Amino acid sequence: MVYPQAVAIPFISIIGICIIIVPLILHIKNKNYPSASILVWFVLLNLFNIINAFIWSSDDTDTWWDGTGLCDFEVKIMIASYVAVPGGLLCVFRSLARVLDTRCAALVPDKKQRWRNRGMEILFCVVVPLLSMVTHIFYQKSRYMVYQVSGCINNFDDSPISLALAFIWPPIICLPACWYCGLVLHRLRLYRSQFGDILNASNSNINKSRFIRLFSLNFIMLVIIFPIQCYVVWQNTVLSFPWHTYTWSAVHGPEWHTIVKYTTGGNAFFDRWVPVAACFLVFVFFGCGKDANELYRSFLRSLGLDRCFACLDTEYNHQTSMASSSGSKVKLLFSKNKIWSSTSR
């Protein structure tokens, strides 16, 4: 039997990966590495959605592959993503807050400041996710579980160490992200009349449009992710009761290598839809702008389609823009003449 979610999730995930490529290229081009890292995590999670839904879509668990190798890799990446995405949001809001900091807006960051900023990005986008992958073994009740459609799922030990090393850290990282987000809002309200001048003096490659889009996108993501992470902490903690005393031998016993498989009636876990929705949200803010359209045109020109469609030709676009500019000047001239003639009367 073919279930709707087993078809919808991989199909929409493929679309999500395709539409997020251009925003990812733009963020890398603009050296916005925290945002680029967030998009890389979304690409990986959507790729897992595609693979898992194709492999584990049937009801017959006896014919299922046990996921050896693939699931071992996936559960580690998923554990890292739980802290990597909030960490990326924290770095984005911190950088935006620094752009609006009038105390250093007109100063070129020295080598120490640049290393400090880069160190923060490496810490939350690389080091913290790697640490979460390393510490995963301490509360990993079994290698993994396999669920229909959703595929590889982490199995957490029912002890306080799961709360201390896993559940609590995503919302904790979201807290300073919320603080920096509030700081950006405060400075936007405080310097709203000098907003453009501050950006010009900030020695950053961000303009007013890109700043607003970047802030709006990450603000929406934070508003969605923070409550979800708090709910996940509460839900996982409640489900893990009653807690038992943690011992390494109890967690990593003879049954640790046993792979348990579950059917779900064709339903996927709700968190499988989060990276899908995030890709479309990113596309709305960064997949339809001027820079993105130019990348689309350059890609189509590389395929030779500029010979068929004149609008893809760079010379045609240049002439069109020149004509538009000339037309605007003529309209302005006639407008001035009209005003002059009316005043002379």
TrEMBL record:
Alphabetized CDD domains for the sequence: 7tmD_STE3
Q: Which Pfam families match?
A: STE3
Location of the protein in the cell: Membrane
What processes in GO biological process is this protein linked to?
pheromone-dependent signal transduction involved in conjugation with cellular fusion
Keywords (alphabetical) are: G-protein coupled receptor, Membrane, Pheromone response, Receptor, Transducer, Transmembrane, Transmembrane helix
Q: Which GO terms describe its cellular component?
A: plasma membrane
Topology relative to the membrane, per the entry? Answer: Multi-pass membrane protein
- Segments passing through the bilayer: 6-26, 38-57, 77-97, 118-139, 159-185, 214-234, 272-289
Q: GO terms for molecular function, please?
A: mating-type factor pheromone receptor activity
| InterPro entries named among the record's database cross-references | GPCR_STE3
Q: Give yes or no: UniProt keyword Transmembrane helix.
A: yes
Q: Report which superkingdom the organism of origin falls in.
A: Eukaryota
Which family is this sequence assigned to?
Answer: Belongs to the G-protein coupled receptor 4 family.
Tell me what this protein is called. Answer: A-pheromone receptor PreA
Question: What lineage is on file?
Answer: Eukaryota, Fungi, Dikarya, Ascomycota, Pezizomycotina
